[in-house]
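Hi support team,

I've been running sequence recovery on a batch of backbones for a student project. Most finish fine, but this one hangs at about 90% for roughly twenty minutes before it completes. I'm not sure whether the input is malformed or the queue is just slow. I've pasted the structure tokens below so you can try to reproduce it. Let me know if you need the job ID as well.

Thanks,
M.K.
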């Protein structure tokens, strides 16, 4: 699904030097490299504050702690996402409220958000699934109207742009009150281990969060709030700082691969290619920057998706089903509040979706082999 080795060979020297410098300086925790990476990421994103932390799940949890959400507060998020999003809501004793998604872009459904709002609702967590933003314009409107926080789960869309109706652009993760991202190795900006970060333009919130990631300390050995220990290792910061200047070209490679996949499947009516929902029109244009294809996800209509997965595995082609079970059907998150009729799209998508290999090193021969194998299977 990913080819981290191929990507490494291209940046080996700069990564090795960067890591060696950290080792020479022995500043393994909160060293200068972490600060440098933080500054460089702030510049890249055009956001006032980046607070590095240990992983993307922590980033989400800390964002919610920073906003002062309290047990019983309802937090609306998508039913079709990775479990980390809902896990931290539950872990903080907040009440997760899962809602359905759109079939076109797999992102949270605006009308479903509106229906789920109660007097207890305190926040919305849009997940920019597979690499493109949820409908942030509408989400910000709803949040303003109901006085809610917006926490972006940006683990899958770092570097993507969101274009507002007036033409203004902003980077994914910098649009709501706070954004959270992951530097898990397979993410678009991946470390060589775990890592994560929180983004915000709110300086008071940034201050609060900087204390929370460090045991609730704002002054050494004064613990003003209950915090956590969540740090980005200096060695991981060295890797990330070496890769950050390449992020745009990495995302371009992914978009090129997506364009070739789309082209190959154009005439296959049982195979629905990913739709772009904001900023870019209907097709992936040359200058497209609204979708960074963390995953390239097809919908298989009127054909056996599971048999296709098996067939691809037999042919040595990796593929993934993200995600096979709706969160509202997971044992940990099932709740009598939920009705199956409220999740028609997620319930369908879990049976239709298949994600193909997507990374910065895909070449034409690989794409040909993958697409031909799928088309032959579909045409039976
Ligand atoms: C990867 C991911 C996370 C969690 O990130 P970790 O760094 O693995 O903790 C959260 N949300 C989504 C949507 C993700 O894809």
């Amino acid at each position: 699904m990913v080819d981290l080795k191929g990507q490494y060979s291209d940046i080996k020297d700069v990564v090795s030097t960067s890591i060696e410098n950290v080792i020479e300086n022995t500043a393994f925790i909160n060293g200068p490299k972490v600060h440098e990476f933080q500054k460089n990421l702030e510049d890249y994103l055009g956001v006032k504050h980046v607070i590095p932390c240990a992983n993307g799940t922590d980033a989400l949890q800390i964002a919610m702690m920073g906003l002062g959400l309290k047990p019983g507060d309802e937090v609306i998020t998508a039913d079709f996402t990775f479990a980390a999003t809902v896990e931290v809501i539950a872990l903080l004793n907040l009440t997760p409220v899962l809602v359905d998604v759109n079939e076109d872009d797999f992102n949270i459904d605006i009308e479903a958000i509106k229906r789920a709002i109660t007097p207890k609702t305190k926040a919305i967590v849009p997940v920019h699934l597979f690499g493109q933003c949820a409908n942030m314009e509408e989400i910000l409107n709803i949040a303003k109207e109901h006085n809610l926080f917006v926490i972006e789960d940006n683990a899958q869309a770092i570097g993507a742009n969101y274009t507002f109706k007036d033409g203004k652009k902003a980077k994914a993760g910098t649009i709501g009150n706070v954004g959270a991202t992951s530097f898990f190795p397979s993410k678009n900006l991946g470390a060589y281990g775990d890592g994560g970060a929180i983004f915000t333009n709110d300086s008071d919130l940034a201050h609060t969060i900087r204390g929370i990631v460090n045991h609730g300390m704002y002054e050494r050995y004064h613990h003003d709030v209950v915090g956590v220990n969540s740090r980005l290792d200096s060695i991981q910061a060295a890797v990330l700082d070496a890769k950050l200047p390449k992020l745009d070209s990495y995302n371009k490679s992914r978009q090129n691969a997506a364009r070739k996949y789309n082209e190959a499947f154009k005439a296959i009516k049982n195979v629905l290619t990913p739709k772009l929902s904001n900023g870019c029109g209907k097709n992936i244009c040359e200058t497209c920057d609204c979708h960074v294809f963390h995953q390239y996800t097809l919908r298989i209509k009127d054909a056996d998706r599971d048999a296709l997965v098996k067939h691809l595995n037999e042919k040595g082609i990796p593929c993934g089903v993200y995600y096979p079970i709706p969160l509202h059907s997971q044992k940990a998150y099932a709740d009598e509040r939920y009705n199956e009729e409220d999740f028609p799209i997620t319930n369908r998508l879990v049976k239709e979706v298949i994600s193909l290999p997507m990374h910065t090193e895909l070449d034409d021969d690989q794409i040909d082999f993958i697409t031909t194998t799928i088309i032959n299977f579909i045409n039976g």
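--
Follow-up from support: It reproduced on our side and the slowdown came from queue contention, not your input. The radius of gyration is 21 Å. No action needed from you.
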